UniProtKB/TrEMBL annotation:
CDD domains: AdoMet_MTases (cd02440)
Highest taxon of source: Eukaryota
UniProt protein name: Protein N-methyltransferase NNT1
Acidic residues compositional bias, start-end: 14-23
Residue segments, region Disordered: 1-23
Amino acid sequence: MDIALFSPSSLFAQDDDSSTDEENAEAQQKFVERNHQFPGMELLIREFTFHQLNANLLWPGSFAFAEWLVQHKSWIEGKRIIELGSGTGGLAIFLWKLFQIDITTSDYDDSDIEENIAHNCKVNGVIPVLPHIKHSWGDAFPTAYPDWDLVIASDILLYVKQYNNLIRTLSFLLKMRMPNSDEPIQRRNAKENGKYPGASRPSFLMSWRRRIGKEEESNFFNGCENAGLEVQHLGSRVYCIKPRETDANKTD
């Protein structure tokens, strides 16, 4: 498996070399705290004034996704969830406080990101802090058999140069399930009875608002299809991606 080596120039469609490494390192140490309004809740979120991996701010897609999830809460009730590209942790903190769900944050293998998410958990009363996994897309995942029911993310299609690595990670999280896992019998029975939409197999629920080109969008969705994943548009620029039945036990 190829290693996902991230750098500012490896993330986006257009390179930007306008800042030196020294300037970036200095800027990374600065923070600003802002109050952000989520549906029915205000959170105080500390953001980087700059982060070379773009984990610095809460983006509009997070708030739009939060509204959609509140309106479609059956998608997350009773689920074990992992969020990719958590950034500041704002969305995960909101979902934990509102629904008391089992949610794990995840982002690029970077200690500053992890520490900032922990800080935001504490100042918003989430103690102990949410579990966090440092993972660069495309790398070997630290958990051999992931047992999350739902993977979520917002506005991660901006990283057009990392689509292949993202799809590798998604394929692993959605397909590599341990048979007869030790999830609680009550939740497993609820799945089998169809209480939770799309819960018979792990799903990836994604929202995005940041504009990308139609070609890049097609490249991502075509890449998912080629990897044995089904793409369903749920409306409001929210997509559900699952493994095809014939490919459910395969990984790249």
